[in-house]
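Hi U.,

Before I forget, here's the chain from the pilot set. I'm dumping it here mostly so it's searchable later in email.
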Amino acid sequence: MEHPSAPAHRGHFPWQGLLLAVSLTTFWNQPTAAQLTIESVPTNAVQGQDVLLLVHHPPGDLAAYVWYKGARVDPNQHIALYAIGQQEIIPGPLYSGRETIYSNGSLLFQNVTQENTGYYTLQVIKANFQTEVGLGHLQVYLELTKPNITCNNSNPVEHEDPVVLTCEPETQNTTYRWLINNQSLLDSAWLKLSLDNRTLTLFNITRNDTGPYECETWNPGSARRSDPFYLNILYGPDAPTISPADSYYQQGANLSLSCHAASNPPAQYSWLINGRPQQSTQELFIPNITANDSGSYTCLVHNSVTGLNRATVKTITVSEPVAQPSIRASNTTVTEQKDAVVLTCLTSDTGISTQWFFNNQHLGLTERMKLSQDNSTLTIDPVKRDDAGDYQCEVSNLVSSSKSDILRLYVKYAPTPGNSAGLSAGVIDSIVVGVLAGVTLAAPLHFLYI
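Structure:
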């Protein structure tokens, strides 16, 4: 595109009078096959850019191009004339020095402002002084600055305080858009947007609504996004939890309890033991505990900002380890199918549970066996040879357990015909036979034949 010469001084050619005469007779010609059109390059300009109103399909045999501000030929809105023969630009009343007309009629605006937005009329004057008119439009948008978010309350209380976020600054012809956690807003009862989307109101906020919040501004010429904005949501304290979960301890152990409650700002902690205030700490430690340390342990939590208080109570039981029990038997040698036997587990401890073992295995009850209500007494009536063996009882509380020594029960029975010496496989629970220096040794038997 050929660059024009500098603007000429008035007086080289009587253009002023000609323009006046032509303006009085200007009309819109019927469109030709190649109609005069004007294109804005770029279509949407940003303030400070250079913008070209590019002319397409100008007619031939031209004498001059004349540009006007507005949608019609108006001498008062005359910007400049370009004399083709002289290759000169003749300024008009609206010429600012930032306009340049090229030899093809295109008009360049340098460093445009929003005031340049509007319609522009190009009048082409032919050598025979006939004219054609074309219309173009220039749109200039403000160069958007980086927005920022302001807030009416950046430290709201959960479920209480509404929060109003505003995207600043307010700019005309600008679209506002919000993002929460890098996601576009979804329809929700706890969100409300202003008509222009510049203000976002949050209702019934929770501790999960801290953000980040971002706002975007957009116009056809530029787009910007704010820095992330976070809320400091005040909440709690929630009901505290005391750990560990254990409630039963053995005498002499160390008691170490910790209390925790979700809270912002962090909660203040204190303890009560059986209603008596203790130190104001999150941790509670008592070494070498005794039964006197049993009772209720209360953790109190307080949030100085929300003003809320919560408490949790844990019952601690301290027990002595159980002593070893013993077994008392009504008889340790009984006759099969004739006698009954009663085994009693003896202990000085209280609050214990009792279990029975037979040959080092949990005792499986048969129809001939009966336990007392507290399991301390085992009755076998009548006894059989299968009942011969080793018996133990075990007592336990919530912190310890102990087994008795073994009590061995012997069962006498009549020999079965065909069995050598009245002993056969399946009759005697075990026989250990060893050979030492050619001598057979038999282990003590739990069964006796008669």
